[in-house]
């Protein structure tokens, strides 16, 4: 029965981590996967996460009972408020259904399964370029393969807003559109506030259904509210939409798979039906989500002082990334690498879309043991004071070769 199974291509992001792990060179540098590293290159457990982890471990009343299908109630409550804002009219009018999800990917997966089952066989438009997994999740959920809309202009290294608006204005009415709420992955280029207003206008006139993917809230500007601006603009306009959240990056709980899917309805009538069907879908997929990470995230978000500590840690992490942007740009200017490297400091979030070609990326991997995705995306969080000059010199060599 297995003879007709063909080998799947390696994942363009996760295969980089595997290749890095297998490389015995002491000089190796991993700039592939978007995971925060400290200045000595180590994974980082946020002190506030560790604090609650220890507290729960020592608390005799801690159990490992099942959660309901839609997850930890206190987590869902705070998660919705984190992204939509405490004053959200959608929350006040009880037009939001929030379910805990297996991080951002899981939220997308449930959302698209819900769309396939209950909204219909709609087309899904994704930005070009986008996070590679968007292209996997949509058809896996039973929808047609995704369609691209223009997003990035390589010459200006900025959002191609006119191309984007044009493509959405000829999209099939009622289609779903994925937007990155902030810190666009991989380009690090976000629409301006004025751009978002124009995008919303087209979305409304074409009755498009936005699906916001928010994997980096707090990582673009260092401020959780600022990074929720675009999502809130769309939600406050009163349309039907979906919002995915992840706590992988902003709480550093990558492996705990903590996230949420928010379905925002234009009217509260179908809320109970939507919630019941989401629970049913989850029951059939994995029954109920894991408790550990959600318990920690809920504890952080529901206590004022802990929330403040989290905000300070976010500011610290995004400041280190910002410092690395400046250090890399300056090192490239200093070593005379041909070209203008200002985009490295102008882009935001965890990544820099360097403009390096796939050949240059391969050259750096083979000669210098520096790993990044083949589209030239560099995880700035993977750079440290002790590797930044080495990486800058390797980029110079790759560009000149
Ligand atoms: C990335 O883009 O590197 C991260 O979002 C990790 C992932 O799952 O791909």
TrEMBL record:
Recorded hits in Pfam families, A to Z, give: Aminotran_1_2
Q: How does it assemble?
A: Homodimer.
Q: Which organism is it from?
A: Grateloupia chiangii
Look at the named UniProt entry and state the broad enzyme category this protein falls under. transferase
- Judging by the UniProt lineage, the source's domain of life is Eukaryota
- Additional record remark: In eukaryotes there are cytoplasmic, mitochondrial and chloroplastic isozymes.
Please list the coiled coil stretches. Answer: 307-334
The record's gene field reads ast
Report domain Aminotransferase class I/classII large positions: 27-395
GO biological process, alphabetically ordered: amino acid metabolic process
Query: What InterPro entries does UniProt report for this protein, alphabetically?
Result: Aminotransferase_I/II_large, Asp_trans, NHTrfase_class1_PyrdxlP-BS, PyrdxlP-dep_Trfase, PyrdxlP-dep_Trfase_major, PyrdxlP-dep_Trfase_small
Enzyme Commission no: 2.6.1.1
Q: Give the PROSITE patterns listed for this entry.
A: AA_TRANSFER_CLASS_1 (PS00105)
Cofactor dependence is on: pyridoxal 5'-phosphate
> For this protein, what is any one GO molecular function term?
L-aspartate:2-oxoglutarate aminotransferase activity
What does the similarity note say? Answer: Belongs to the class-I pyridoxal-phosphate-dependent aminotransferase family.
Is ATP-binding there in the keyword field? no
Q: Which reaction does it catalyse?
A: L-aspartate + 2-oxoglutarate = oxaloacetate + L-glutamate
* Signal sequence annotation: none
Designated name of the protein: Aspartate aminotransferase
Q: Kindly state which keywords UniProt assigns to this record, in alphabetical order.
A: Aminotransferase, Coiled coil, Pyridoxal phosphate, Transferase
Q: Which PANTHER family does the record associate with it?
A: ASPARTATE AMINOTRANSFERASE, ASPARTATE AMINOTRANSFERASE, MITOCHONDRIAL
């Amino acid at each position: 029965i297995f003879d007709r199974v063909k080998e799947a291509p390696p994942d363009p992001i996760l295969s980089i981590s595997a290749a890095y792990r297998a490389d015995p060179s002491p000089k190796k540098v991993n700039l592939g996967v978007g995971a925060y590293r400290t200045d000595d290159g180590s994974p980082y457990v946020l002190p506030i996460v560790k604090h609650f982890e220890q507290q729960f471990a020592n608390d005799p009343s801690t159990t490992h009972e099942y959660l309901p299908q839609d997850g930890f109630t206190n987590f869902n409550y705070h998660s919705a408020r984190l992204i939509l804002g405490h004053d959200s009219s959608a929350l006040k009018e009880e037009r939001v259904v929030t379910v805990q999800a297996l991080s951002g990917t899981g939220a997308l997966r449930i959302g698209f399964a819900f769309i396939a089952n209950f909204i219909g066989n709609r087309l899904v438009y994704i930005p070009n370029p986008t996070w590679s997994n968007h292209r996997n999740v949509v058809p896996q959920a039973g929808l047609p393969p995704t369609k691209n809309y223009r997003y990035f202009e390589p010459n200006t290294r900025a959002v191609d807003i006119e191309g984007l608006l044009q493509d959405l204005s000829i999209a099939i009415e009622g289609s779903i559109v994925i937007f990155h709420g902030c810190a666009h992955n991989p380009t690090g280029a976000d629409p301006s506030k004025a751009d978002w207003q124009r995008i919303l206008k087209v979305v409304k006139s074409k009755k498009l259904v936005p699906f916001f993917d928010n994997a980096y809230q707090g990582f673009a500007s260092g401020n959780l509210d600022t990074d929720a601006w675009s999502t809130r603009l769309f939600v406050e306009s009163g349309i039907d939409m979906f919002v995915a959240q992840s706590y992988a990056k902003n709480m550093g709980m990558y492996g705990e798979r903590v996230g949420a899917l928010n379905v925002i309805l234009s009217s509260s009538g179908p809320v109970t039906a939507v919630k019941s069907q989401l629970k049913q879908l989850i029951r059939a997929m994995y029954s109920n989500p894991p408790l550990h990470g959600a318990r920690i995230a809920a504890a952080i978000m529901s206590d004022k002082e802990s929330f403040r500590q989290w905000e300070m840690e976010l500011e610290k992490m995004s400041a280190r990334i910002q410092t690395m942007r400046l250090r890399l740009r300056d090192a490239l200017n200093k070593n005379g690498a041909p070209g203008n490297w200002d985009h490295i400091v102008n882009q935001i979030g965890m990544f820099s879309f360097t403009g390096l070609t796939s050949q240059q990326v391969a050259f750096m991997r083979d000669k210098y043991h520096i790993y990044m995705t083949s589209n030239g995306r560099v995880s700035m969080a993977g750079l440290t004071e002790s590797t930044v000059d080495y990486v800058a010199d390797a980029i110079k060599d790759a560009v000149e070769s």
